[in-house]
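Q: Entry one of two.
A:
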Amino acid sequence: MDPTDRQVARVSSAFCARTNLLSSTVLSTLPHPPEENTTSPIPFFHLLERLKTTKREGWRRFGINGESISDHMYRMSIMTMFAPPELASKLNIPHCTKMALIHDMAESLVGDITPVDKDVTKTEKARREADVMDYITETLLGKIPGGALSAQEIKRVFQEYEDNVTLEAQFVHDIDKMELLLQMVEYERAHEVDLSEFEHVANRVQLPEIKVWAQQVVAERPKRG
């Protein structure tokens, strides 16, 4: 076996080990685990239903059984289409919208891991999500002929978001924070609860044009004595 073949074998073995771990943990708890290695996208479509039913965990600590992961990504995707003109001229907006719809796809199996989950490090969170994206793109979608959106394109867009190097990725990261800030204000109004601990997210917005939005949203927060 030449060096290239050995490398391919090692990668394949590592992927199989991760997939087996995934199968023995999360997948084994599903009432209807997706059919694997099929030429149909239907099992993948069923998996996406979990994004509709899995709640965003940050709010649940405050007794708010609110938005799902899909709710979050849907508003994000719409927001990307309203980039300020001076920023939009530098962006590939359709690509940003695609990224917004893909960036939390791994949470269909790993769930919404938040910064307060101290037992899961940032590195471990990234590893779990990468494993799920490998499972989705290789095991669920690997045998499906490429169409308008191929499995490898999904994987590339997800990784681009994770790397956060391109302007499009930075923009979508900022939109992710903006969507949270909007939801913070809306839940404070609806539930009369103080969600101040989320306000610091506004300071993490990077792009000047989106900083303006963040400041406008924070200014909407109810005044507290």
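Q: Entry two of two.
A:
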Amino acid sequence: MSSIPGFAEEEARLKAAFIYNFTKYVTWPQYIEQAGGALHVCVLGADAYFDELNQLAGRDVRSFKLEIKQLKLSDPVDSCQVVYTSGASVRKFLPQTGTLPILTISDEPGFVDAGGMIGLVTEGRRIRFDINLGRARDVQLQISSRLLQLARRVE
């Protein structure tokens, strides 16, 4: 979180909105898209982000209803379509996603370079993001060209 006074809560709210909006511009493999139902956004640690994201539960994302789950590092991630994590758990959780079609998001520095898909970056009071398009394609996730154009960096 940012050390700018009064910005921590706003930052959590903004990042939750980014995460929600990312789901609108990502397409999962056909078997997931056709199943519809719930789109599980799982939060590993990061309580402030869980609280903010949980306020978005039930919203529509194309044919899905948004469901928010809080995970522990020992919990399986295979029921998640999105996993957001922050802090030291990043390096431990990434290998769990393997070849699963899970959109991985974090604000941990170096996340995209370590194999994560979307890295949130705070620059002053502005939030930007980097995308590891190769990693997303490896697990059959399609990221809209509109989202790619907004990214600070695409790999």
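A: Comment on entry two: Confidence is low (pLDDT under 50) at residues 1-5. The domain at 7-154 is CATH 3.40.50 (Rossmann fold).
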